[in-house]
Design goal:
The complex is a heterodimer of chains A (328) and B (497).
Chain A (H helix, E strand, L loop, with lengths): L20 E10 L2 E11 L4 E5 L6 H8 L7 E6 L2 E2 L4 H6 L1 E4 L11 H11 L4 H14 L15 H13 L5 E5 L7 H15 L4 E5 L3 H7 L2 E6 L2 E6 L1 H9 L3 E6 L11 H6 L3 E5 L3 E5 L3 H14 L4 E6 L4 H11 L1
Parallel strand pairs in A: 3-8, 3-9, 6-7, 7-8
Antiparallel strand pairs in A: 1-2, 1-4, 4-5, 9-10, 11-13, 11-14, 12-13
Helix pairs in contact in A: 3-4, 8-11
Chain B lengths: L1 H29 L2 H31 L3 H21 L1 H6 L1 H7 L3 H5 L5 H35 L5 H28 L3 H7 L1 H20 L2 H25 L2 H6 L7 H12 L18 H20 L1 H24 L4 H4 L5 H7 L9 H21 L3 H21 L5 H8 L1 H23 L10 H33 L1 H9 L2
Helix pairs in contact in B: 1-7, 2-3, 2-7, 3-7, 3-8, 3-10, 5-8, 7-8, 8-11, 13-22, 14-22, 15-19, 15-21, 18-19, 18-21, 18-22, 19-20, 19-21, 20-23, 21-22
The chains are: A alpha/beta (328), B mainly alpha (497).
């Protein structure tokens, strides 16, 4: 199951595959418009890549090409070592896809539904039942095995679609909005499960509008707009690159005093760029916090200024996202 | 032996997912009471009712001495009880792909390792199986009813014919509907387009009814053969045109005429050529030489090369029509005195004044062009087949006459004198035009690699237009002039009294 030859006649185990997903100049044109425009990126085994972007940016089209459902117009994509254009069936065998809509057969019972997809994926009877039951139990749906899918809640349907995507234990998971429509508890179950898969060297591409979720679980973020990748990196890298130096906040045991009369603000601004200050706090940019912060603390201590806390003001991924998208 | 076992295993592996899909679809159909109730009514209640009506009608007509009406009615009703259940196959088949697309359950299926052929076959078999089983059950119930009430059993050959006919009709309806379902964007559009299946099938059933009452069952075997060919063509067409990308990516079927025109015009263009000279730098008044040079030196030969399979098909069909002409001539001999007519200028003049068709170059040319244009139009609606048939018919007639003439004249001399002088141009022109027409129809069955059906059709149309006006019309014009002015002289000089 986990073996691939990369279309080059050489067998490799998944452990030997350096990049689980490799896109090179991937482009998809439909009548009159370009949905995906020369996307180049890669995902390592055990890595979670979040694909962020506004509606119609090209996320779903990219995922469909990775799942060998749509054929790229130009460029190439290799998934688990197989080409999506030349070996689409091999790719589909190794990819689990959570589609934008759950797309379930509502008249079937949960168990029947998973059995059907397990058969199509080529799983043996015993294995498909075991895996289906395990996954249902993991997502708190063991009782729903015999229920008709039509009676499921929206969140249960989403979880069922996720179970379907994970049923054949694929090395690559493409998840489009996995926690949409889920209650917080279910969403956490799914997030934990996705993080758990990272430890099994699975590569995961996550399309989402839920930025805190992306920040919490993704190793790297790719922001896509009008079919082009406009930012790519770890959340920290993106923040540093796009929002500038980290912003630190110093809380003091005494008032900062008048900055015009040798107050603490003036003292701090000798070392770093002060962004703002209040009655007993100062915010400053620290291009290199490891160097600047000890120096500043040392200086304040020497002047007898009591420091209550020194912490980083967290900038959210949302700030990064909004800035990138607006600039683009 | 090992190779056979390996092949069997491979076939089993390929068919396994197909049957999985078929099983799910059938179970899904049978879970819907709106499908189950009509199936029960049409397979159990309706055939039983037909048995009773047949029995009642038999007694009724016997009272007036018209037993033959009753006798003919029993096979007719046998066909009807078989046909009614397959009528609802359309409902299932029309929504196979587009229905799933509307319910948004298609994408997960497309993301499985099923190949296009497996997916297509699975869906087609799933749509076909319940109606056909219902049809066989209906026939069984009807026959059982007649056997117990009237003691009537059909001749074995009639029973086999009815079952085979029902099956091929069911396959035509389902495979046609599945093609529609995979090519439309909504169930509503598929239902509207289903008229193209329902109307011909309704006409066919009426024709069959007439034949049943006429009791000429041999004709029905020819219908079976025809429908079997249509089955193969439709299934092949469905597999070739099935495109999971189009199915998923296409949301709106908008008729974009400017875009179509642009695409057609781009296919009409060709590179100018004039013995290696840079045509753009030639004097403006001479550039047309480059345009013609490019057309005749490169473009038309390229079109003919890519139409070679169609040309070969037409030639094979012509050879077959020669055989048909020969066979009929052998079977239906004309009396020699009919053939031994006076061949003179006056006889030609008489034959030219029939009132329907005057024998001038212009009229001959227009007639030939009209026939070839009609063949192209018919080809579009018949996957190319009627264009071939339209050419085969006159060829069969010509060779019928050539073989008949053998009893009076030397057939080779007759053919060389009466056909070849103009036929040497007319025949190749007709073959080429027909082959290009065949492409206009066949493109629906097998679009060029990497092209959607519409795109392929516009390409075939552009090829047809270029070859028709640049090659076929000049050849036919010359042939018409020869036919009117040269062929009669040759015939007179060879056979004239």
């Amino acid at each position: 199951m986990l073996y691939c030859d990369g279309g080059k006649g050489q067998s490799k185990t998944l452990d030997e595959v350096v990049m689980m997903i490799e896109l090179t100049g991937l482009t998809k044109r439909f009548d009159g418009f370009i949905a995906v425009d020369g996307v180049t990126l890669s995902v390592r085994p055990g890595e979670i890549l979040a694909l962020l972007g506004p509606n119609g940016a090209g996320k779903t089209t990219t995922v469909r090409m990775l799942a060998a459902i749509l054929r790229p117009t130009t460029g190439e994509a290799r998934v688990a070592g197989y080409s999506v254009t030349e070996q689409p069936q091999e790719v589909r065998r190794r990819v689990g896809v959570l589609t934008e809509h759950p797309g379930l057969y509502l008249r079937m019972r949960g168990g029947q539904y998973l059995d059907f997809f397990g058969r199509l994926m080529g799983l043996e009877a015993e294995e498909r039942e075991r895996r289906a039951k395990d996954l249902m139990a993991r997502f708190g749906m063991a009782d729903a095995w015999e229920q008709r899918i039509g009676t499921y809640s929206k969140g249960m349907r989403q979880k069922m679609a996720l179970v379907r995507a994970m049923l054949h234990d694929p090395p690559v998971l493409l998840l489009d909005e996995p926690t949409s429509a889920m209650d917080p508890h279910s969403a956490k179950l799914v997030r934990d499960s996705v993080i758990g898969l990272r430890h099994h060297r699975r590569a995961i591409v996550l399309c989402t509008h839920n930025l805190p979720e992306a920040e919490a679980i993704a190793d790297r973020i790719a922001i896509i707009r009008r079919g082009k990748i406009i930012a790519l990196g770890t959340p920290a890298e993106l923040k540093a690159r796009l929002l500038g130096a980290p912003l630190m906040e110093l809380r003091l045991a005494q008032p900062v005093g008048d900055p015009r009369r040798n107050g603490i603000v003036k003292l701090v601004s000798e070392l770093v760029e002060v962004e703002a200050h209040g009655e007993d706090w100062v915010r400053y940019f620290a291009p290199d916090p490891r160097e600047t912060n000890p120096q500043l603390l040392h200086l304040l201590a020497a002047r007898g200024v009591g420091v209550v806390t020194l912490s980083e003001v967290r900038c959210s991924l949302e700030d990064v996202y909004l800035r990138v998208v607006e600039e683009a | 032996m090992a190779a056979i076992a390996e092949r069997r295993r491979a076939v089993g592996e390929a068919l396994g997912p197909v049957f999985t899909l078929v099983g799910r679809e059938i179970r899904d159909t049978l879970r819907d009471w709106r499908m189950v109730v009509p199936i029960i009514i049409l397979t159990l209640f309706f055939p039983a009712l037909m048995s009773w009506i047949a029995n009642y009608a038999l007694r009724g007509v016997a009272r007036y001495g018209a037993e033959i009406v009753g006798e003919r009615m029993l096979p007719f009703l046998l066909m009807v009880v078989g046909f009614f259940p397959i009528s609802f196959s359309l409902v299932i088949a029309l929504e196979t792909f587009v229905g799933e697309k509307e319910r948004r359950s298609l994408e997960p299926l497309l993301a499985t390792p099923l190949s296009d052929t497996q997916l297509y076959l699975g869906k087609t078999l799933a749509a076909m199986t319940p109606p056909l089983l219902a049809a066989y059950l209906g026939i069984t119930v009807y026959l059982a009813g007649l056997y117990f009430i009237e003691g009537w059993t059909p001749p074995l050959i009639l029973l086999v014919l009815t079952i085979v006919l029902t099956t091929v009709k069911g396959v035509v309806m389902v495979s046609g509907a599945v093609v529609l379902s995979s090519q439309t964007t909504s169930v509503r559009a598929a239902n509207l387009l289903a008229s193209f299946i329902i109307i011909p099938m309704a006409l066919l059933v009426q024709g069959e009814a007439l034949i049943m009452f006429w009791a000429n069952y041999d004709v029905l075997w020819w219908i079976v053969l025809f429908l079997a060919v249509v089955d193969i063509v439709l299934i092949r067409m469905g597999i070739h045109t099935f495109n999971r990308e189009e199915l998923l990516g296409r949301e709106i079927d908008e008729l974009n005429l400017p875009s179509l025109w642009r695409s057609f015009r781009s296919r009409l263009r060709w590179e100018p050529w004039f013995f290696g000279a840079d045509v753009k730098k030639m004097p403006a008044g001479l550039r047309w030489l480059g345009v013609l040079g490019g057309l005749y030196r490169h473009d038309i030969p390229a079109i003919l090369r890519r139409s070679r399979l169609a040309i070969l098909t037409v030639v094979i069909a012509l050879v077959f029509s020669v055989y048909v002409g020969y066979t009929f001539a052998d079977r239906y001999r004309l009396p020699p005195d009919v053939l031994r007519q006076e061949v003179s200028s006056e006889a030609f003049a008489r034959s030219q004044n029939l009132g329907m068709f005057s024998f001038t170059t212009w009229d001959v040319l227009i007639h030939n062009l009209r026939v070839l244009a009609a063949a192209a139009l018919l080809a579009v609606f018949s996957l190319g087949t009627l264009a071939i048939a339209l050419l085969m018919l006159p060829m069969a007639v010509i060779f019928f006459l050539v073989v008949q003439a053998a009893s009076v004249y030397n057939p080779v001399v007759f053919f060389a004198a009466a056909v070849l002088p103009h036929g040497v141009l007319e025949l190749p022109a007709a073959v080429i035009a027909t082959a290009l027409s065949v492409r206009l129809g066949a493109v629906f069955m097998s679009p060029p690699k990497g092209m959607a059906v519409g795109e392929g059709w516009l390409w075939a149309l552009a090829d047809f237009v270029k070859v028709f006006f640049a090659l076929v019309v000049p050849m036919l014009a010359l042939a018409a002039a020869l036919e009117v002015h040269v062929t009669p002289l040759v015939v007179l000089s060879v056979f004239g009294g």
